[in-house]
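Thread: Metal-dependent hydrolase, beta-lactamase superfamily II, structure

OP (GT): Posting the sequence first so everyone is looking at the same thing. Length is 466 residues per the record. Can we get the structure tokens written out before standup tomorrow? I want them in the notebook alongside the other entries.
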Amino acid sequence: MCYQQLYTLFRRCGCCLCLLIPLYTAAQNKILEIHHINIENGDATMIVVHDTVANTFPVKILIDGGNSGTDRFLQNYFTNYFGAANMPVTFKYLILTHFHHDHYTGFNKLGNGTIFRADTVIDPGGYTLGTTFGPINPPENTPNRGAKGSTQASIYKNALKDAFNNNYLRSRSMVVTSFPRDIGKVLTIDTLNGVPATLKCVASSGYTYGSGGLPVDNGNSKLSNPNNFTLGFILEYGQFRYFTAGDMGGYDAGSCSRYIDQEATMDGGFDTLFHTKSYRFDRNAYQSSFIAHVCAFKTSHHGSGCSSSPDLMRFTACAMFLSAGYMSRWGLPEPDFQKRIDTLFDPLSDWPTAQRPLGVNNRGIYITNLYNFPSGTKKFCRSTAISLFANKDSTNFSYGNDYSTTGVHGNNQYQSKDVTCKDSYVLKVEPNNILTQSQFYVFRVNYYKNVNQPLSTFQCHRNTPP
């Protein structure tokens, strides 16, 4: 029985799966997974290659580590997913997108190796650690990229020193090291079932991967905000494509004047990479007139109004993942952003209700830590999202961590401090026919509570007409 038949069976039975559904045939034993980990504040995304026959994880990559105190959420997640016997977790790459505390402070535990360790660290650079730390120093003298003048950034750099001294960290990447030279550089993370999976660097230090694959300087010299130095990557596996870029900005005026617009030039890069390879998966099956097509993306800057501009959203993805938080002064994801995304988020597939296969959705919106706030202009984050996205036939919408109303932060509903009350979202790529088409599945998970609930199937695109 194939995955879609199993999914249909459970949907018709009204069951909530608490066991992993096999997505593979015997020959397709390696599955690519992307875990959007609920860490309460900040970002933490884990890319995993899962050998489902041996039940091993030959490749693990962690992108960002969250805010102060989020290491306890990571420890809970890793322990329950990999098993206590496999702690601490050793990552092939540990990637810091930029020097803001809600992305790197959770990496402080790297120094003592109790939760995770790493073969190689990748970050924007712009710092030195001293002559005794040669293997983890940036290989050349680079300008400040948001790493200086911050007490919090020192936490990250001290963790690198301690990890190196204790043999918990081997090196800093020699591939993604300086810009614009390294825009477009590719890291091969593994080969799954004979097909390589790669990370392509498409953004850093204000440069982006532009039209024709040429690096574009977006004016990084005029500003020093760490968001402007964000690392951005495209994950490719056959026809599957996923985009993630920390807190990269798409506007540079008004309330967004602290940022540079990197999204306007990046759409040329998406066009160069994918325009000729994107055909609808649905009944029309024609080549898109849009700029390109990715399958899914991690929303930049937690749903800030300064990111996900009309330029970027021309890439017509199927599913978006957003990590917000309980910080009322941030008020994310902003209602104005949500309204914009509802208009711009126009996936390539457009199955009509009468013809769409059971369990398949046109678009998916998945948010962790979605709340209303007591006051302020951005207070209606949760209610706005529900009014825009819930109960739409074409949209699969989900938000997590509503298990408990105890131990809340302030007056905000459903903000439990308990690490076991946090739902996360996992994307799993279908390996069959991956060279000609892309299909993937999204699950809501809480491994501590044995929750592994299938939410939707996405038929992303074909690279040729059917």
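GT: Both are above now. Quick notes for whoever picks this up: The chain has a mean pLDDT of 84. The chain has one domain: 3-462.
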